[in-house]
Amino acid sequence: MGLMSEYIKKNKPIEELNSELRELIKKYNQKKDTYMVVHASAISKSDIPDVALNMDDYYAIIDLIRDVESTNLDFYIETPGGSGEAAEEIVRHLRNKFENINFVVSGEAKSAGTIIVLSGNEIYMTETGSLGPIDAQVFIGRYRVSAHDYIEWVNEKWKEAESKGRLNPFDATMIAQISPGELRGVEHSLRFAEEIVGKWLAKYKFSKWNVTETHQRPVTTDMKIKRAKEVASELINHGKWRSHGRSLKINDLEDIGLKINRVDSDLELADIVYRIQTIIRLIFSNSNTYKIFVTQDNILSKNATVASPVMPINEAMPEAVEAKIECEGCKKIHELYINLNGNKEVDQELKSKGLIPFPNNSRLICECGTENDLSGLKNDIESKFGKKIVN
Questions:
Q1: From the centroid of its chain, how far is CA 118?
Q2: What is the pTM of this model?
Q3: Which domains are seen in the chain, by residue range?
Q4: Torsion over CA of 22, 23, 25 and 29, rounded to 10 degrees?
Q5: Dihedral-angle region of residue 109 (phi above 0 means left; psi in -120 to 50 means alpha; beta otherwise)
Q6: Tens of pLDDT along 13-46?
Q7: Are 285 and 375 contacting, i.e. CB atoms less than 8 angstroms apart?
Q8: CB-CB contact of 101 with 153 (8 Å)
Q9: How many whole angstroms separate alpha carbon 51 and alpha carbon 138?
Q10: Is residue 301 within 8 Å of 289, Cβ to Cβ?
């Protein structure tokens, strides 16, 4: 049985999932003699602007670790990316407080999240974990484009104009609209990530790289700086990865010169990390929570507030809601009703029509044996009508 199936079968409420998450973090700390911080965003809820990394996250993390006395930190991170400046501030604070910092990635840590991860002394990843390119994304007119591709295109047109003495009318029109200030801004955005990642890799990730693996030669500071610049240059190369959202797995990262610690090689550690990831997914899918900050001692969460529908003055609140559910296994359609007021007459009327009441545990068991999770539907209806479902 997979971990997700195991937890769905247990059907734990959010409060119990939060408690188990903290216990798993405590177990991780004991195994590795460290202090773990979990910072995760619900990447699937991308319609919420605050899901992206921002300065509020920086302040939340500072508050969470204010009284931590350990000199070791393991930081579990899941994020779609966001502000590079916020990433820089988070790393500065962590580096001022802790001597040794490891990052743990089992989900996605993209863009600005990748920048943070590359400041670690060690990077631990599961087979499901992924980082991403760090090429800056900038707005040109109404469109968001890769800074790397934009600069490359401008340079190509510059060379073309020098060699031919002219440009075609379309390119000439486009180039004429670019101001020197705009071009400098794009260049600065591109170099920002490349420079700080290069600096952090040389200082932290490569700090214990003292002998070359093949020839066993001493590694100099210049060699560390050179390797760090090469890795950073690869990660900003949009032409290589083709997509800013590309998932870079362990093998991809090792191919460009990064050594990654494989969590799956330690079965006990892997079980803890995968359970942490699974519980995070369940918290996000079964609640309005879209961002969490967790340690063994504390938990902070951000929750989306769903606006209640505006009801016409003379329109009555419905006593029940009908829903058709397609079984994920056999595709059979089940007709359910949700009682909003506990009216017994409504129960009798809808049952007489062949509808079945919404299950108490939000789990619909089909005749084919498939268990269908209705927690999301329950949360949506309760949020929409501002009432608890009465079973």
A1: 16
A2: 0.71
A3: 3-132+247-303 (3.90.226), 320-385 (no CATH)
A4: 140
A5: beta
A6: 999 999 999 999 999 999 999 999 999 999 988 7
A7: yes
A8: no
A9: 19
A10: yes
